[in-house]
Amino acid sequence: MRENKMTYSEAVAELEKILKQLENIDEVNMDEISSKVKRASVLMDLCKKKLHLLDEDLEKMMAELDN
């Protein structure tokens, strides 16, 4: 799934899946660890961006309510 179309919930779900896989290190091929960590980094960045945009939107709405 392309990151720009991914929802926050989908990104978190994929992060949780990666975490579970990494917790069961016996089930993860050592060659896959780097790619999983890189993917997790991309997903965390996506989540941070979405949260930042949400925060900005909420601040705008609160400011409009104050006026």
Q: Count of helices?
A: 2
How does the major sheet shape up?
Answer: none
Q: How many domains would you count in the coordinates?
A: 1
Arithmetic mean pLDDT? 90
Q: In percent terms, what proportion of residues is strand?
A: under 5%
Question: For the CA atoms, what is the radius of gyration?
Answer: 16 Å
Uncertain segments of ≥5 residues (pLDDT<50)? none
Percent helix among the residues?
over 70%
Q: Terminal Cα separation, in Å?
A: 41 Å
What's the helix-strand series? HH
**Strand pairing plus helix content: what structural class?**
mainly alpha
Number of strands: 0
| Shape descriptor | elongated
Structural write-up:
There is one protein chain. With 67 residues, this protein is mainly alpha-helical. Helix content is 79%, strand content 0%. The protein has helices at 8-23, 30-66. Helix 1 packs antiparallel against helix 2 (30-66). The radius of gyration is 16 Å and the shape is elongated. It starts with 7 loop residues before the first helix and ends with a helix. 4% of the residues are buried. The model has no long low-confidence stretch (mean pLDDT 90).
